[in-house]
């Protein structure tokens, strides 16, 4: 990336906002419709100007969990970092930020996001290392 960037939650709230109702599908069959507000990842990527050959974003979480997404998927699906769910600040279960990745299963919706790293290859995330599909498009596991 051409720029490293460190942002507070207040900084993130000052960016362009996306308000969206989304469907969160879990691998186990649960499904929730939630109202979210957050920062579009496209706006964040514009700010850091990733190197042309960067292909993947790695989302690191406060609990040690991590997941990866191809940058092109994040842009095409209009993924974003939510800081509000159903009109309220994200609770302790997920605070401060939760990745919203429309069309992907919940294990790709990282909670407690504290750092995003851009990579050249395609490393496997936590659940992918344990056998779940990397792409995780809803319906692919049925």
Characterise this structure.
The chain is of the alpha+beta class. The chain has a single domain (9-130), classed as Sulfite Oxidase, Chain A, domain 2, CATH 3.90.420.10. The protein has three helices and eight strands. The chain has helices at 9-13, 41-48, 71-76; strands at residues 18-25, 31-40, 56-61, 66-70, 80-85, 88-89, 98-100, 113-119.
Short description:
This protein has helices at 9-13, 41-48, 71-76, and strands at 18-25, 31-40, 56-61, 66-70, 80-85, 88-89, 98-100, 113-119.
Protein topology:
Elements: H1 9-13, E1 18-25, E2 31-40, H2 41-48, E3 56-61, E4 66-70, H3 71-76, E5 80-85, E6 88-89, E7 98-100, E8 113-119
Antiparallel strand pairs: 1-2, 2-5, 3-4, 3-8, 5-6, 5-7
């Amino acid at each position: 990336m051409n720029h490293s960037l460190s942002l507070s939650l207040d900084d993130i709230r000052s960016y362009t906002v996306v308000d969206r109702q989304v469907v969160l599908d879990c691998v186990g069959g649960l499904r929730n419709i939630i109202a979210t507000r957050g920062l579009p990842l496209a706006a964040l990527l514009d700010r850091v100007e990733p190197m042309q050959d960067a292909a993947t974003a790695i989302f690191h979480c406060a609990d040690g969990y991590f997941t990866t997404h191809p940058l092109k998927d994040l842009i095409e699906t209009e993924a974003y970092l939510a800081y509000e769910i159903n009109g309220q600040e994200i609770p302790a279960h997920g605070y401060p930020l939760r990745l919203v990745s429309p069309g992907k299963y919940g294990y790709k919706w990282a909670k407690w996001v504290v750092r995003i790293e851009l990579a050249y290859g395609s490393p496997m995330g936590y659940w992918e290392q344990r056998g779940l599909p990397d792409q995780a498009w809803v319906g692919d596991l049925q």
